[in-house]
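pasting for ref. prot 1 ->
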Amino acid sequence: MPPALAALQKQQEALRRQQEEQARLDAEEQRRQEEEARLEAEAEAKREQARAVKKQKEKEKKEQLKKEGKLLTKAQKEAKERSELRMEQMLAAGGKVAGLEEGAEKKRPVYDRKRKPKKGTEEQKQDEQSESASQLSFTFSPFSTTASESFESSDSDPAASRS
């Protein structure tokens, strides 16, 4: 084989090896980039899942506070803060608040009529009750010998039966 041909084959062989090495490096670089992209996507998915879990927990917490009636709007929070500030100022000035004292006894409500019944009406009621009781004592008895007397005695006082 001529030396020129051998040199040409060596060059071609070196060129082929160089191209194969370049192709291998390119493929390796591409695999590395794909792996990085995959890892980045997994990390992003984990972050997204963590955000979703956090958001869900926050939503559940708000829902629980709503159920308990403790969820306050911004305006309600400000009003509460103003109220607490006024309370502190009043306590600092020497004011007393009945609900905050430990030894404070609650006053029990007195359930009583505001209007007292008139004495005359009570006497009238008692008279009516006694009259109705006396009327009941004159009942018809089938064993009585004089049935007409028992009827006459109950009908004898028509004024009492009207009242």
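and prot 2 ->
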Amino acid sequence: MASPATAASNDDEGNEPAGAAFTCRFTAALRHVETTLVPNPVLSDPLAPLLCGPRALKLAQDELAGLAAAQGPGKHLRVPARTRLVEEQLLDALRQLSSHEQGGVDVQVVSLGCGMDTRPWRLPQLAQRSGCRVRWFDVDQPEIARLKLDSLAAAGAQTSAEEVVRPGDGQRERPAAAAFPLHCSSYAMVGADLSVVPLREALVQLAEPAQPFRADLPTVWVLEAVIYYLPLEAADALLQVSFAPAHARSERVLGRDWS
């Protein structure tokens, strides 16, 4: 794995995004620093250094150094710790949903305010187990969605799990092996400003035609460090959708920023 000093980046330091897009990069950088510099890290994220950029990486290294100076070496960064806690809740929710079904089930995961999250590529538990197929939807602002998809493409990460038609004989086959393959059965990136666009409208209208959002399927809603970025009215509407889903067997995974 690349060290923090040599981690790859798609942007020159003076050309990195600002605002919410930079926050997403910084979160990825914190996961990379936790992975490579903290003993017994709470997670491993080999994709993170290709998504963070040099300025965010330097800031994450400084945060770890400040933590070590204040509390001693070997402490875990708070954001990766939150990430680990949320994904444990996510995997538990998926196990509970799949255990209720006979003969297999499609389960949707909707990750709201996903940023540079890499769970679809990082968690092998998302691969089909006992007939449970995970359909993953990432949702974030349009500019962040574009930045993430561009960064994933540059990193060689798989974003489509669909079969493709082979030139010549017309046979269908899985896509060529990617540097970072998907563990879920399908993936869609939805670019929508949830402070303006209602969640269900965004999922129905903006999801890729090849992977439409289905209200009849059990769904796990992941809200990790997103609610406090929204106006109160938009946050209330989002919570009403995710806490009163159309399907009776749905779960919510809430993550907040403990500081």
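Strands lie at 105-112, 132-140, 164-165, 172-173, 186-191, 219-224, 251-255.
The longest strand covers residues 132-140.
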